Amino acid sequence: MPVSVTFDRPVSDDQRRAVESWLRVTTSSGVTGAWSWITDRTLGPGRRVDFRPAAYWAPGTTVTVALGSHESRHFTVARSLIATVDLSTHQMTVVDDGTTSHIPVTAGRPGLDTWEGTMVVMDKSPAVYMNSQTVGLGDAYHDYYYWASHLTESGTYLHQNARADIYAGKQNVTHGCIGLADDGTAKRFYNMVMVGDVVTVVGSSAKPVVATGNGYGDWNRSWSQWLANSTLGAVSTAATPS
Question: Where's the L,D-TPase catalytic domain (predicted)?
Fold first, then answer.
């Protein structure tokens, strides 16, 4: 999960260096990271700046984000979980703190292909009501889905899907979400995953990499691309000696 700060109004180009200097990230590891300006799908340009290291946070890292001298936030990075969904083989490989498991999935059918790229779990819910028309689909399909991990603002989830009972591991048949079987598989994954975990989708030829501002797509930028949208550049997160 990147650190993400949003503003009530757009920050102009000539203010961005001062804003990045005002925001301070310190970590127990002293890792190098950088702020980068994101065109958020909902907010638009200039209202969101994210911070991340060059590679994923190391488990156990403690992070403090100081918003000037007024307030701060603290969190500790949890264990590592990275799920890789291969649309061509209909399999999800989950590496949870070094332990690997394989889960059959069904994803977006041709024409409604699941986004390819790296996403981060934004939030999760035991039940989500979904209406296909809210994302521009005309077939008016709507229902509750369970054990849902939210991946993009545009509506990509990884969740239980009754059709996965038949098609998981065999064929992609969904509206674009990643479906897990309703035989306990979906609930087990839901209980395993947490906000901030990484889900990478590969094997799609029809969909581009998910946009950076469509949720937390920050890891789809290379480190050089990330720095290109930073005015301050790479900075150390080592605490300043008192």
Answer: 81-202
**What is the pTM (predicted TM-score) of this model?**
0.92
Burial level of 39, CB count in 10 A (0-12/13-18/19+)? Answer: middle
Active-site residue among 90, 150, 159, 175?
159
Q: Any catalytic annotation for residue 177?
A: yes
pLDDT by residue (tens digit) across 119-171? 999 999 999 998 665 555 555 565 789 999 999 998 999 999 999 999 999 99
Domains and CATH numbers, the chain: 3-77+219-236 (2.60.40.3710), 81-202 (2.40.440.10)
Residue among 90, 150, 175, 177 flagged as catalytic: 177
Order of strands across the sheet that contains 178-180: 123-131, 142-150, 157-160, 178-180
Active site residue 159: yes
Q: What percent of the chain has pLDDT over 90?
A: 85
